[in-house]
Design a protein that fits this description.
Layout lengths: L2 H30 L3 H16 L1 H9 L2 E8 L13 E7 L3 E6 L7 E7 L18
Antiparallel strand pairs: 1-2, 2-3, 3-4
Amino acid sequence: MRKSTIILSVLLYASIVSIVYLLADRYVFRSFAPDIEDQAILGEMTMMVLESQQYKAIAAKETVYAVKQGVDRFNSGDPSSVYSYEIAIVTDKDTYGFTCDDDACTAVSNGSWGGDLYQDIHPILPIGGVKK
């Protein structure tokens, strides 16, 4: 084989690999990143969570460090479903996931519990009253 053929083959291979990587990365990013419409829905859901009795009970017992909004369309049968949205309440003891109760999202409830983000580390920002 000629030297130029080898160089062109390597460049073609590198280009194909780069394109496949970028497409896969973009697909995964879009599966978990909220767009403008998602942000509006998540904002309304956050207000519903903060007004719910379940959140008030959690906030009364534990120190709330963060309220995180998320969307997960990756393994969903219907990517536009309201069940793809989740509001996570991160406290000093646990992380609570709130999702919509029905298709119209007339109410939200705590449906999942996760690990504690701040179990081994302290909050990043100097939240009042938290000592290292």
